[in-house]
Design a protein that fits this description.
Layout (H helix, E strand, L loop, with lengths): L6 H21 L9 E2 L10 E6 L5 E3 L2 E3 L1 H13 L5 E6 L5 H14 L2 E4 L2 E2 L4
Parallel strand pairs: 1-7, 2-5, 5-6
Antiparallel strand pairs: 2-3, 3-4
Helix pairs in contact: 2-3
Length: 125
Amino acid sequence: MADINVTSLVDVAFTLLIIFIITAPILQGGIEVEVPETEVSSLTADDRTLIVTVDRGGIIYLAETAVDRAEFSQSFNQLVSAGNVDKVWIKGDSLATWGAGVDIMATVAASGVSFSVVAEQRPNN
């Protein structure tokens, strides 16, 4: 009676599992900020959704590229005129300066593209 030794197969499977557990959070991408908490509904993204992020220091990111406030308007308008953007998500750190967020909302509103502000659902206490 011949038996199949699966010990090495199990070792490889566990090794791959550990690799995936470690690398999965790294692959999420995006700029990490602490968004404010409020009553929100869920958002769904597609390929033509642009995420604009404002970090705690007031630095603006178009997708994952840092731009200053003067460059943002020009860069954003180029993306819109190219037809690559249908909607915009504005994701701002809860401690970011309000001026950068207002500039972003004004620029996006002037372009005619719809936008949403990203927040986390407030926990139920």
